């Protein structure tokens, strides 16, 4: 379990708060773009400010977003993500949480799909250096559950070497934000058609 204040491990209540695609999108937008108001987030996500405000309050109750005390006034409340990273280990949840875990995972899948589509749509306007490093590779491996866990740990360790979004770890000149999505997806076993 992490003690990093920029990292949250989901428990039952935070999981329930995030088991909604719009809440995942709001939290992702705050992490990606920084503090914002419900109105600005509504414009960014093409939803009403009232809907954004409602879902932000639900995220606040779960401790996932908070007021940005240095901004705002009586009319405009500014929000910021309370953590830079979210982690979930489904082994921490019982059978009674299975539906909520599945809904959360669907919300994450939806957010990844939306982000991928936005990036592919923006590809033509990217600088050539960035356009040429874009990579959408997939590999079909045969591994045991233990090997899959080892693979995930090793990949996460490599990615953490390149995290420049933490205080005291400045990015080199020319660095831009990139999204690295790690997915280890057990594949359904095809039944033999014969």
UniProtKB/TrEMBL annotation:
<protein>
    <submittedName>
        <fullName>Helix-turn-helix domain-containing protein</fullName>
    </submittedName>
</protein>
<feature type="domain" description="HTH arsR-type">
    <location>
        <begin position="13"/>
        <end position="90"/>
    </location>
</feature>
<dbReference type="Pfam" id="PF12840">
    <property type="entry name" value="HTH_20"/>
</dbReference>
<dbReference type="InterPro" id="IPR011991">
    <property type="entry name" value="ArsR-like_HTH"/>
</dbReference>
<dbReference type="InterPro" id="IPR001845">
    <property type="entry name" value="HTH_ArsR_DNA-bd_dom"/>
</dbReference>
<dbReference type="InterPro" id="IPR036388">
    <property type="entry name" value="WH-like_DNA-bd_sf"/>
</dbReference>
<dbReference type="GO" id="GO:0003700">
    <property type="term" value="F:DNA-binding transcription factor activity"/>
</dbReference>
<dbReference type="InterPro" id="IPR036390">
    <property type="entry name" value="WH_DNA-bd_sf"/>
</dbReference>
């Amino acid at each position: 379990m992490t003690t990093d204040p920029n990292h949250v491990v989901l428990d039952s209540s935070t999981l329930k708060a995030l088991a909604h695609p719009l809440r995942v999108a709001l939290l992702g937008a705050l992490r990606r773009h920084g503090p914002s108001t419900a109105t600005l987030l509504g414009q960014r996500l093409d939803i009403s400010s009232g809907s954004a405000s409602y879902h932000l309050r639900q995220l606040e109750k779960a401790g996932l977003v908070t007021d940005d005390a240095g901004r705002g006034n009586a009319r405009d409340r500014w929000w910021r993500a309370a953590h830079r990273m979210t982690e979930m280990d489904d082994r921490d949840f019982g059978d009674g949480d299975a539906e909520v875990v599945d809904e959360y995972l669907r919300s994450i899948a939806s957010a990844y799909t939306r982000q991928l589509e936005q990036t592919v749509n923006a590809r033509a306007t990217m600088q050539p250096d960035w356009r040429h490093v874009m990579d959408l590779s997939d590999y079909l491996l045969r591994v045991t559950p233990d090997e899959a866990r080892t693979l995930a740990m090793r990949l996460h360790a490599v990615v953490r070497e390149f995290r420049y979004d933490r205080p005291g770890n400045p990015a080199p000149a020319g660095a831009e934000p990139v999204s690295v999505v790690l997915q280890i997806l057990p594949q359904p076993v095809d039944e033999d058609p014969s």
